[in-house]
């Protein structure tokens, strides 16, 4: 089945979790889409897991275009979300120019990190027919401003600002929101207030869907084990990459992933 923004919205309406995973190449895109992953994120996390950088900041537009093209070639019906890299959406004109490149590379939607300051760009993109996914909470491109990869929204003021930001980006036209590394109760509160689906990572199991970095799900880097990640290979019943992806899909769908230990309070 070909996934669309409407089909993801219907899953929220039916309270059925939406499964999202990252992929950066045609082989994995084919495997994930054939397994039934509803959306594939061509994440700028590729800067870390493919290129070996310690943040996503060095990733360029040309690299995102290349990986989006690769994923589009292998995809068999998942919705493709492509990340706009660092500073590629710093103002409205730059956003339009760069989002156009990702859509022409095969994306169905682009993702940008930030809150209310994104409103003019989100309006301009949606008016021109480019669907936008906003990314709130821990926004990795701001790792230096945030003084590291840390849980966001624990203080009341910061939590209130996240709720306001979520409502503002929805009102501007966003069709999806990624919530990264925020307390599970806050993620649930935002999810209930929004009409559009929320996709969590480190945000508890009450969001409308989950996303993980594929390499983390496969436990490729044994030195990188944040609390919200589960190594799906670390299970006697899992013998192949396909098994691990099936287990991820099943546990997202029945909301057993993430569990309490994999969520923040
Ligand atoms: O780049 C990425 O993979 C992401 C996810 C962590 C949500 O933005």
Q: How do the strands and helices of this protein lay out in sequence?
A:
Elements: H1 5-13, E1 18-22, H2 26-35, E2 39-42, H3 46-49, H4 61-74, E3 79-83, H5 92-105, E4 109-113, H6 119-127, E5 132-137, H7 156-172, E6 176-180, H8 184-193, E7 198-201, E8 209-212, H9 214-217, H10 241-253
Parallel strand pairs: 1-2, 1-8, 2-3, 3-4, 4-5, 5-6, 6-7, 7-8
Helix pairs in contact: 2-4, 4-5, 5-6, 7-8
Bound molecules: 3-methyl-2-oxobutanoic acid.
The site of 3-methyl-2-oxobutanoic acid has 12 residues, from strand 6.
Description of the structure:
The chain is α/β, with parallel strands linked by helices and 265 residues long. The protein has a single domain (5-262), classed as Phosphoenolpyruvate-binding domains (TIM Barrel, Alpha-Beta Barrel). It contains ten helices and eight strands. The chain has helices at 5-13, 26-35, 46-49, 61-74, 92-105, 119-127, 156-172, 184-193, 214-217, 241-253; strands at 18-22, 39-42, 79-83, 109-113, 132-137, 176-180, 198-201, 209-212. The chain has an eight-stranded parallel β-barrel with strand order 1-2-3-4-5-6-7-8, surrounded by eight helices. Helix 2 (26-35) packs across helix 4 (61-74), helix 5 packs across helix 6 (119-127) and helix 7 (156-172) packs parallel to helix 8. The N and C termini lie far apart (36 Å). The mean pLDDT is 97. The chain binds 3-methyl-2-oxobutanoic acid (KIV).
List keywords for this structure.
265 residues, alpha/beta, TIM Barrel, 14% strand, globular, binds 3-methyl-2-oxobutanoic acid
